[in-house]
Amino acid sequence: MTIYVKMRGYLLIVCCLLTGFFFTACNEIPNCSGTSENLLKVKFTSVDFDTENDVFVLTDSLVIIQEVRSEERPDSLIIEQADTTSLLTLPVSPYSNTSGYLITINDSEYVLRVTYDREARLIAPECGIEQVYKNLDISGTLPGDSVLILNDRLLRPSDENQNINVEIFF
To answer: Is residue 141 within 8 Å of 153, Cβ to Cβ?
Structure first.
């Protein structure tokens, strides 16, 4: 009788352990893809005034970007070939709160400086941290009449035209 009670006790302990392992094994694996990225998206927009209808007309402006260099390291090319585009994607520095670019557009050189706050955010204990870029501010000698910050955080888009950060109006 005592052997049966001891076996039942051991069996109960084993069942509890197996149940515990089963429930911990069924936990969902966390999504380790963060929402932040280190790419700044700049859109060029043409502004025309329609005198007949007395309204401003905004259209995507195609600009010829001949090259883009890092302001901190001018020997470092980011874009080195002529490209006609209305959207420019630039990497920001993960090591400082400022990134500067020397941009050659239509044989003229402009300076674009971006300042931002960096913050480390824990995605999940299993995933680690991601660096978040927020509170964007723009300065420099820019090619347009005005600049609008559309999104002051660098976020991972679901398609190429989402999450444009800066729009430069010509």
So the answer is: no
Contact 102, 109 (CB under 8 A): yes
> CB–CB of 147/164 below 8 Å?
no
Spell out the residues 6+ positions from residue 159 whose beta carbon is closer than 8 angstroms to its own. none
Burial of residue 154 (number of CB atoms within 10 Å: 0-12, 13-18, 19+):
buried
Dist. CA 32–CA 46, nearest whole Å = 39
Residue 16 CA neighbour count, 13 Å, CB half: 6
| pTM reported for the whole predicted model | 0.70
Tell me how far apart the alpha carbons of residues 44 and 130 are, in angstroms, rounded to a whole number. Answer: 29
* Weakly modelled stretches of the chain, pLDDT under 50: 1, 5
pLDDT digits (tens, 9 = 90+) for 18-32: 565 555 555 567 677
- Distance CA(39)–CA(78), nearest Å, equals 12
